[in-house]
Write a structure and sequence with these properties.
The structure is a homodimer. Chain A starts with a helix and ends with a helix. The first copy, chain A, is mostly helical. Chain A folds into two domains: 1-68, Arc Repressor Mutant, subunit A, CATH 1.10.10; 70-105. The longest helix of chain A has 36 residues, at 70-105. Chain A has helices spanning 5-9, 12-23, 28-34, 39-51, 70-105, and strands at 55-60, 63-68. Chain A has a two-stranded antiparallel sheet. Chain A binds chain B through residues 4, 6-7, 9-10, 12, 15, 18-19, 22, 68, 70-71, 73-74, 76-77, 79-80, 82-84, 86-87, 89-91, and chain B through 4, 6-7, 9-10, 12, 15, 18-19, 22, 68, 70-71, 73-74, 76-77, 79-80, 82-84, 86-87, 89-91. The structure holds a DNA duplex. Chains A, B: GO terms for molecular function: DNA-binding transcription factor activity.
DNA sequence: TATATATGCAACTTTTGAGTTGCGCAAATA
DNA sequence: TATTTGCGCAACTCAAAAGTTGCATATATA
C-alpha cells in the first residue's frame, strides 16, 4: 500500500524515529532498543516510513542502516507554504487591531 | 479529549477543510456540501480541528462560521525547523558530490 | 405559536492501524 | 557445517477513529 506522508508523521513513535535518524542512521534493532517496543513493531513503522520515502535503507552485511531522507520532508514545507502567507496576514491584521484599540483608549 | 495537531492533519478530509477555510470561513453545512459526506461526519472533523485549535468558531444567529487559525499551523513549522538545516546540508553535500564527479570526468 | 433550519451530542457499525507472536531466510561466526 | 544473529513477512488481537442514524436544542420564519 502506498503510504501518505501526513499519515506517516501522525504517529509519535515514527516522529521519534525520524528525529533520531536525522542525526545518525540506525538499524531496526538499535531503534527497538531506544523505544520500549518489540523489533517487529519498529519494523512496521520502518515499512511505513520507507514506503513514503522518508527513510532510505543502506545494506551492510546482514545489517540495514536506515537514513533520513530530507528531500521528502520538504513536501511538508510545500504544503505549509499555502498557509504561510495566510498566517503572516492574520498577524498583521492582529497588529492593526491592537493598535486601533490602543488609539481608542487614548 | 485533547487532540494532537499531527493526528488532526493526517486526515485528507480535514486537510481539505483547512485549505477551504483558509480562503473563506464556512459553516458546517457548507462544508458538507463540498464533500460527499453527511453533515454529522463533517461535524466530527470540525470537532477534531477545533479541539486542537486549528479552527475558530464565529456564531452568527443560528449559523456558525469556522475560521482558520493560522497561528496554530506554525507549530508544524517549528517541528519542521529541526529538519530544515538537515535537508539544506544534505543538498549541499549532494552539490559537492556532483561537482566532484564532474571533476573526475575531465 | 407552529414549522423549518442549523447545529451538536450519543449510540452504533465498520474500518484502520498499532502491537504481538510465530515463522522463514540470509549473513556472520563457532 | 551447525548455530547464532538481524531482518522481513503473515496471521492475529485489540484499540482508536471514521462514518452512519437518531435525537435534542436553539434560532429564524410563516
Amino acid at each position: 500500500m502506498k503510504q501518505d506522508i501526513f499519515q506517516a508523521i501522525s504517529d509519535p513513535t515514527r516522529r521519534a524515529i525520524l528525529t533520531l535518524i536525522a542525526i545518525q542512521a540506525l538499524t531496526p534493532n538499535a531503534m527497538a532498543e531506544k523505544f520500549d517496543m518489540t523489533r517487529q513493531a519498529v519494523s512496521k513503522h520502518i515499512k511505513v516510513l520507507y514506503e513514503c520515502e522518508l527513510i532510505k535503507p543502506e545494506q551492510s552485511g546482514r545489517e540495514i542502516y536506515y537514513h533520513f531522507n530530507a528531500k521528502k520532508m520538504q513536501e511538508f514545507d510545500h504544503w505549509l507554504a499555502q498557509f504561510r502567507q495566510n498566517w503572516k496576514t492574520q498577524f498583521n491584521q492582529l497588529d492593526h487591531l491592537l493598535s486601533t484599540i490602543k488609539e481608542q483608549k487614548k
